[in-house]
Amino acid sequence: MRFEEIVIETDSSNKIMSLLVFLKNRAEQTGAKPEISMDALAQMASSVGVSLTYDNFSTLVQGNPAFETLVADFNQETVVLNLAGDETTIASKADLDLEPVDKVDSMAKRALKKRT
Fold first, then answer.
1. Most exposed: 20, 23, 53, 70, by fewest CB within 10 Å?
2. Among 55-64, 88-97, 99-108, which is the least confidently predicted range?
3. Which domain holds residue 22?
4. Are residues 8 and 65 in the same domain?
5. Contact 67, 60 (CB under 8 A)
6. Are strands 78-81 and 71-74 parallel, antiparallel or unpaired?
7. Residue 66 and residue 76 in contact, taking contact as beta carbons nearer than 8 Å
8. Torsional sign, CA 92, 95, 97, 100
């Protein structure tokens, strides 16, 4: 019985870890804020079969160094995830996407001037 409890706990912590990694990657790709409400995280965890409360989450984060690297801050209302860079890095990636648009606009204007 005791071994089964350990296996179940490890399995649920792996599911929560996978969920946090998914949310972190999604925030990095979309440039969204790396923040989620505790209620939304608990609902997502319940959809993968894990009952998550603030106390359970607090125990997981404080007891596992892998969680400490993923979670920047958390309280009873929100969870903030660590990203590879900070939010200004994500914003600068979005700004980089504007440069080709400006280049194409200038090329189109130059071509239009040649036609007239």
1. 53
2. 88-97
3. 2-84
4. yes
5. yes
6. antiparallel
7. no
8. negative
**Per-residue pLDDT tens for 59-79?**
888 888 888 888 988 999 999
* HSE toward the beta carbon, residue 34, CA cutoff 13 A: 25
Work out the number of other CB atoms within 10 angstroms of the CB of residue 33: 13
Q: In Å, how far are 7, 8, 9, 15, 21 from 4, measured between CA atoms?
A: 5, 6, 9, 16, 26
How many residues are listed for the chain in this entry? 116
Tokens of 37: 């409400």
Half-sphere exposure of 78 (CA within 13 A, CB side): 8
The DSSP output letter for 1 is -
- The pTM for the full model equals 0.62
45-62 residues labelled b (16+ CB within 10 A) or e (exposed): beeeebebebebbeebbe
In the chain, the percentage of residues whose pLDDT exceeds 70 is: 75
